[in-house]
Amino acid sequence: MTKHIARKRFGQNFLTDQQVLTDIISCINPQQDESMVEIGPGLAAMTRLLLDGLQALHVVELDRDLVARLKKSFDPTKLTIHEGDALKFDFVTIPVNPGKKLRIVGNLPYNISSPLLFHLAEYADQVEDQHFMLQKEVVERMVAEPGGKEYGRLSVMLQWRYHMELLFIVPPTAFDPPPRVDSAIVRMIPKKEKLPCKLENLELVVTKSFSQRRKTIRNCVAGLFDEQQLQSVGIDPQLRAEAIPLEQYVALANLLP
In what residue span(s) does the Ribosomal RNA adenine methylase transferase N-terminal domain sit (predicted)? Predict the structure, then answer.
């Protein structure tokens, strides 16, 4: 089979380091009776290892050339290929065994990582867990605590839905071609009971709050809340958005109709 040339427009960097692949599979720990989907299988380095532990696997791949390679390389009764954009894919369409939830894994394209994470959050109630390779900087933002520059909209919105953990760092040398940045593996487990709140209210509050990071929260949410309302949920109006924890953003969102 001819060598596949990585395409920049698809954000392709193929993981080739066998030890890193083994470590990722160990973290995922696939079991025979589980329903799993891999986003962006690429040259199938992880796909093959996943199938060693699964009865069957679903994959979502956008690149037609890679889809053709996958079809030639795998038994269709073991690997179900969904050709298309993961940003538009309906993950509910993947069949799940009784009593089980869907598990999602993948080496996510860095150029669409944030919108893809928000798209996947829509399915959190149907998902057991997610294991992703992402740009290290993105994972640090996902798991960030209040008080640092990494903490922002991505942190708050994802932490409302998931328990998250940065598992380990992956260097550029593990890929072909090597990216210019470090990568990281993150585990995301949907919360069984998230803080009660309307999603659209929380999105509005968080987006407004982080729209001008150098300004105080009072100025950022002017028009939505006054100082008295901020103080009513324990927020100092002089604080910046990055200093405010998830619980207080939820409390603010719950002040909206």
Answer: 20-192
pLDDT-derived band at 145 (thresholds 50, 70, 90) equals: very high
C-alpha span between 201 and 256 (Å, rounded): 7
Binding residues for S-adenosyl-L-methionine: 13, 15, 40, 61, 85, 107
Residue 1, classified by CB atoms within 10 Å of its CB into exposed (0-12), middle (13-18) or buried (19+), is exposed
E strand or H helix at 14: strand 14-15
Class for domain 199-253, per CATH? mainly alpha
CATH number of 8-190: 3.40.50.150
Question: Binding site residues, as ranges?
Answer: 13, 15, 40, 61, 85, 107
Segment 74-92 shows an average pLDDT of: 97
Instruction: Give residue limits of the domains in the chain.
Output: 8-190, 199-253
Report the predicted TM-score, pTM, of the whole model to 2 decimal places. 0.92
